[in-house]
């Protein structure tokens, strides 16, 4: 694992070759023990202080740390037929009981401080994470207190460039750059309902060598030009193309005061959906100012809806606005499957927060936290990549990823026998590592990122012991 992490940052340009070498050491140390603190993950006081000095260096920035990883990700994207570029936002809660992180801004309210992280992660159509292709992070200076009328006026009159929602357009432009550098790959920019912004649909998607497609879950009640119905009603008026079953994950509301349906608590269940699709032309919203003229746009919409939800449960309803074709049922199925991959970025955030414990890092300024975040973002991607790679390429030799001291020590620990003469397949190795982190070996299931990040920490210790006391 460490070799691959080293390759993801080896080309970082930080203005000093010593800083690049330090970045390699830092990401190897933290990547070997992603769930542990910086002092516990580094070897001794000198390395710990060097890591903290690295995060505090003025020449270091998240963009410079991530640049070689982004270039490597684009190379991986160019080798696939379809790349799903999923963008989403998460908040980093940096609230401390005593001394607060300098530079942290308010999140939902002034007593909860932190920063926002908005990455775009590339996936294959089967859900294999390829890496980060773009990211943006920011803090708020304050929260505007406005009445309902004032808020509505501010939303209508403020240019999109002055709103936080502008990040979705920036993300689409970044996706357009990826599509331009990878002309043989079909790139699809995917986002959830927060990205239902009219200006996003109006944004140019073409490049000199192709275009990027758009797939966004809709939430606004936009009116169609021809029928005067909402696009929800227009899609619901069409015939059902097919029915499908989806597993709905359990969810616990973060805030008891948050009454939005998409954030409410729900139990896990198997939902039966009806899927419909149509093409609509949506009326443009009013924007004041002579430079705010918008035109009507034509989009394809796919409605996946649960007609008979359990008593008391909010029905599952996806209205997907897209530029992908819907001429055939198979194309509609593909659109629903593509959007289902969007959930993988939530797993990425969970790996970053619960696995790498980024919010618990004891750094005094938000600038140091964001530098640390960039390093752990690569580590979180790597954990997810290993978790999925075992099932995507099960027969691949594990020695392409793991050192002999790693796979031999794991085999001996798990199997209670001498290691084999040849390296085991990658899928078998991933399952053994996850078993060290609490995964119960079963043929019907596959390990997830949580058991894998716990297991990887034990791999590091076993490998160290093997090199120190083992054969040879």
UniProtKB/TrEMBL annotation:
Transmembrane segments: none annotated. Residues 265-370 form the Transposase IS4-like domain. One of its GO terms (biological process) is DNA transposition. SUPFAM superfamilies: Ribonuclease H-like. It holds the Pfam family Dimer_Tnp_Tn5. GO terms for molecular function: DNA binding; transposase activity. Residues 378-459 form the Transposase Tn5 dimerisation domain. It comes from the Bacteria. InterPro entries: RNaseH-like_sf (IPR012337), TN5-like_N_sf (IPR038215), Tn5_transposase (IPR054836), Tn5p-like (IPR047768), Transposase_11 (IPR002559), Transposase_Tn5 (IPR003201), Transposase_Tn5-like_C (IPR014737), Transposase_Tn5-like_N (IPR014735). Residues 6-60 form the Transposase Tn5-like N-terminal domain. This is IS4 family transposase. The lineage of its organism: Bacteria, Pseudomonadati, Planctomycetota, Planctomycetia, Pirellulales.
